[in-house]
Amino acid sequence: MGFARACSVALVGVEGVVVEVQADLEPGVAAFTLVGLPDKSLVESRDRVRAAVVNSGAEWPQKKLTVGLSPASVPKGGSGFDLAVAVSVLAAAERIDPRQIADLVLIGELGLDGRVRPVRGVLPAVLAAAEAGYEQVVVPEQTAGEASLVPGVSVLGVRTLRQLIAVLADEPVPHEEPVAAGRRDPALAGLLVPGAGVGSGARTVSGVGGGPDLADVAGQRTARTGLEVAAAGGHHLLLTGPPGAGKTMLAERLPGVLPPLTRRESLEVTAVHSVAGVLPPGEPLVRTAPYCAPHHSATMQALVGGGHGLPRPGAVSLAHRGVLFLDEAPEFSGKALDALRQPLESGHVVVARSGGVVRLPARFLMVLAANPCPCGRHTLHGSGCECPPSVVRRYQARMSGPLLDRVDLRIEVEPVHRSALAGGGGESTAVVAARVLEARARAAARLRGTGWSVNSEVPGHELRTRWTVAPGALEAVERDMDRGLLTARGLDRVLRVAWTIADLHGRDRPDARDVALALELRTGIARGAAGLAGAAR
What residue stretches are annotated with the AAA+ ATPase domain (predicted)? Predict the structure, then answer.
């Protein structure tokens, strides 16, 4: 009787669970049994592993073989267990010393010819292994850079099972021919799966200067102010205006204004993109804020996550630490829009499906863009809008009150006049991004030790008691509350925006001008504050 064990990782959403892969050989009729709650693709690993072992020059044991995946109660899926299964079987057959693999974590799919193919989710899998105390990991060669992002872990990238057998058996490592120059490695097809996230519009910007520039935007002083405030404080934004006014143009330039991701944030974003299959090969670490713009026909599952079995990341998770842009927001399903209310408040989304419950990160900056009516000409004088008032009301009511109450900034984007186009654009992305970075540094210094990093995360109670505004600064806000124009949640959000505006101006605390501008940006009602105390210069 032979017995050996190795380790692999099962992914539940973007979190990993270390799985012990045990192989047991006993005398009897040759058979291969796989137990431990595997899914269809994992059950098929029996044929892949057998062919890969034989085609790698090793002998397949002609005995009764049982491979167990422990803990058996955790659902396991995907082809990433192939490598661990093959090595544990060879160790049980004494082709490899079982002691060599007892504390080794192996992740990778096997081709029938013995090649090791990359799989999605390597980064979160290696992170889970490191947190569990494992220090040695074997991954496909193409994903070794992604696995090496985890500190304290020794990573071995292999191209074929034959190479791995030679390394573990302390034999000369055979040379494998690389992919011919000019040809794309076919093994990389497993990393970018069509429909796994590309359709949701996820992408990353190239950093300041490498993406769309704010200097391209002509006019729109108030909208640029709102964009800067949103970036500085992490405030959600609603842009309303006729078609062609520049709403999409402004939203596409918001990621470039956001500060670069910290190391921790980069790992979080990379882990999500790796699981979703939208991480570009050769770029193992996402360093800039992602931008996700799903089509308005996207379902609720496409937005918050879903799929067969265990849920997969949706658009809100692909936009984690970045921007989620919903163009033509009233055209989205009402259920899909209301499903955003939980992640907007908590920074994560909990999705329950038949395969289990998954908690996915979803701390994003949301930008909504909407026309004033179905034809888009309702607010234009002499435009010939023929939408009846009832149609306009129904159209605008597609975005529910509870959702809009969670939006801090509501900006009316006016049509651009010919004079503004002739005068050129405003400040560049680099100039605005520098001010945003300074404002975030002031907020981080004030919030140090609290667990919050931007003003939009601070609870309202703390803003009303711990960090107070200048005396008399809230008079306009109190009047709006008395008139029913502002809710208690709205008051808290006005205070958050006011603190962001004060940070942009370098003030120790908000004064009446900052609160007035915050109130104008919150309600969308012009009060003359934007011209006096605009954050954009």
Answer: 233-417
